[in-house]
Specification:
440 residues, alpha/beta, Aspartate Aminotransferase, domain 2, four-stranded antiparallel β-sheet
Length: 440
């Protein structure tokens, strides 16, 4: 008698934990040999089991796990609408392009409008501004918080300014009250790039819920991972329609994959210059993309999301351990700081080498690299110095002195849940050894 596919499936899933225990045994940390990573995936057998479960459906595009993740993600953050996409960069592209949707009528952005942002960050916060034919207005940032200088923002507002697009740098919330007030006063759109800040709060409310839309990344370095993946959230019904359309080829139809005629008017509408009754599944109201994630990615995300509160707690603990270790070096480094109203789920621990420290960032990061301790610069430094952005149409509101300083002197260490107290202690010890070798 042949076995049912349900019984076989159950056996397969039961074997996953056994496989995980055999394949992913945790190894002992050996100082100087085991790398101290700045980031990485943290998972157990549950993510693998969910992934295998999804793969056995062989539903390769968005499906049941995508629906579950989008609902749970929106619920966790307290948002009305959540859309899973294939990366945080795609999330930024979709969220920002939605501001140019005809659904917004006279409020929509148009080519030539100005958007306030920063040059000290990751390129895909900037790219959608350029790709949509808008003009980025660059504001300098503070050393320590690495977030935008609010007074410069206020002075930079002009008649063409229509939006503000900012990241919460390394999970550290920018001054949300001040930026929201600027947006209200001047009727500007606000998009929060939360790709490094999932779980960070401002006045006990999650970042991403203050602006018109927010973006998130699920790359392995981030707070939860699907390998690749990202999300956009919003509470605005018009933006939600535009975001969904732009993600799904630009189509007007909002049926989920495999569903038909959700609206009950599939063959009865009149759209543009198309003939009456044209199939709504093939009506396109935006110039869009296919930026969906797969259900297999979403299956991993469903399990990762359950771990998010614990992950954020560990990140905060690791940040405190770094801070305690670095206190003795405060004459050599500018240490990070956060606003009193915020509680960052730190993506990393950033430090800036002081001008009179007696050594350069590169000297120290080379030393740490030799001793198997990973560091990263604050992403692109001053993006205007990068080859891709040479000669772009932009406006610099003031000097970018701090941005240039960050480009030369700032780096960060890891706070992700996979780093241990022993690894942080070893890293601090090696930094002290470096300073002693310099007789500092």
């Amino acid at each position: 008698m042949s076995r049912s596919h349900q019984d076989i499936r159950a056996d397969i899933l039961n074997l996953v934990k056994e496989y995980y225990d055999a394949r992913f045994q945790k190894s002992e940390f050996i100082p100087g040999i085991t790398p101290v990573r700045y980031a990485g995936r943290v998972f157990d057998f549950r993510e693998i089991s969910s992934l295998v479960d999804s793969s056995l459906d062989f539903w390769l595009t968005a499906g049941r796990f995508t629906k579950e993740f989008e609902l749970e993600f929106a619920s966790f953050l307290g948002a009305k609408y959540s859309f899973l996409v294939n990366s945080g960069s795609s999330a930024n592209l979709v969220a920002f392009t939605a501001l140019m949707s005809p659904l917004l009528k006279e409020k929509k952005l148009n080519p030539g409008d100005e958007v306030i942002s920063v040059a000290a960050g990751f390129p895909t916060t900037l790219n959608p501004i350029i790709q949509n034919g808008l003009i980025p207005v660059f504001i300098d940032v503070e050393i320590g918080t690495y977030n935008v200088i609010v007074e410069q923002v206020k002075k930079a507002i002009g008649p063409k300014t229509k939006a503000i697009f900012l990241a919460h740098t390394l999970g550290n919330p920018f001054n949300i009250d001040a930026i929201v007030e600027v947006c209200r006063k001047h009727e500007l759109f606000l998009i929060e790039d939360c790709c490094d800040a999932l779980g960070s709060t401002y006045k006990n409310k999650f970042v991403g819920t203050f602006g018109h839309a927010a973006t998130f990344s699920f790359y392995p370095a981030h707070h939860i991972t699907m390998g690749e993946g990202g999300a956009v959230i919003t509470n605005d019904a018009f933006l939600s329609r535009a975001i969904r359309s732009l993600r799904d080829w630009g189509r007007d139809c909002y049926c989920n994959g495999g569903d038909n005629n959700t609206c009950g008017k599939r063959f009865t509408g009149k759209y543009g210059n198309l003939p009456a009754g044209y199939d709504h599944k093939y009506v396109y109201s935006h110039i869009g993309y296919n930026l969906k994630a797969t259900d297999m990615q979403a299956a991993i995300g469903v399990e990762q999301l359950k771990k998010l509160p614990e992950f954020c707690s560990i990140r905060r603990k690791n940040y405190k351990n770094w801070m305690e270790g670095f206190k003795k070096f405060e004459d050599k480094f500018i240490l990070p700081r956060a606003l009193s109203e915020s509680d960052p789920a730190w993506f990393a621990f950033p430090v800036t080498v002081r001008e009179d420290a007696g050594f350069t960032r590169t000297e120290l990061t080379n030393y740490l690299d030799y001793h198997k301790i990973e560091t990263r610069n604050l992403f692109g430094g001053n993006l205007l110095k990068q080859p891709a952005y040479s000669g772009i149409n932009c406006r610099i509101a003031d000097t970018l002195d701090n941005t240039d300083r960050i480009m030369n002197d700032t780096f960060f260490l890891g706070t992700f849940p996979g780093i241990t107290e022993a690894q942080i202690a070893y890293s601090i010890e090696k930094i002290e050894s470096f300073l002693n070798s310099k007789k500092l």
